[in-house]
Design a protein that fits this description.
Layout: H1 3-30, H2 32-52
């Protein structure tokens, strides 16, 4: 696993835990309907940001590239 993948995984787990805690305490303070509205807005923003991101990795070739081995003639 590369360093970036590990970092993104840890950040994703931390963000999920923070979102759950914020939702739990937010419902107690703001009420259920307000938290549903906030959750829908954040989810929509996440979907939009996911849709407009460009992929970081180049596309994989469609067919594998074969290489020839050199053989020693004896």
């Amino acid at each position: 696993m590369s360093r970036n993948t590990f970092r993104n995984t840890v950040l994703g787990i931390g963000a999920t835990a923070a979102a759950l805690a914020l939702g739990y305490f937010g419902v107690q303070q703001l009420g259920r309907n307000n938290m549903f509205t906030i959750a829908a807005a954040v989810g929509g923003a996440g979907a939009i940001s996911y849709a407009v991101q460009k992929p970081n990795q180049p596309e994989a070739p469609t067919a594998p590239i074969k290489t020839q081995r050199r053989r020693n003639k004896s």
